[in-house]
Amino acid sequence: MTASFDPPLSGTDQDETAEFRPKFNENGLIPAIAQDADSGEVLMMAWMNAEALRRTLETGEVTYWSRSRRALWVKGETSGHVQKLVEAWIDCDQDALVLKVQQAGPACHTSRRSCFYRRVTAPDQLSPDAG
Description:
Blueprint lengths: L11 H5 L13 E7 L5 E7 L1 H10 L3 E4 L4 E4 L8 E8 L6 E7 L14 E5 L2 E4 L3
């Protein structure tokens, strides 16, 4: 089944509408930031197409679009590290999502809790987060 959403409005109408009108990019994708619903920790960022977004909202199981595999990807489907949707938020012009989730196990494919484990300390240096 193919999902569809009403198209974005133009100009400030998009910013002020009470309607859900996600603005997908030229590749049909929208960035989705997964955040721990309890702690607020940012866990990961991935992409969603309209079908992934529809499935996530309907099932509560967070589903993304894998650009490398060109396929839908239910988070934790093979690893067991699932994300259950608690709340979904969209920004002012509806071109980015924040998904507040309950995360089972690590969110990152490196087996870390979060994909954001390196702090930029200088323009050319990274350091592991001490926390």
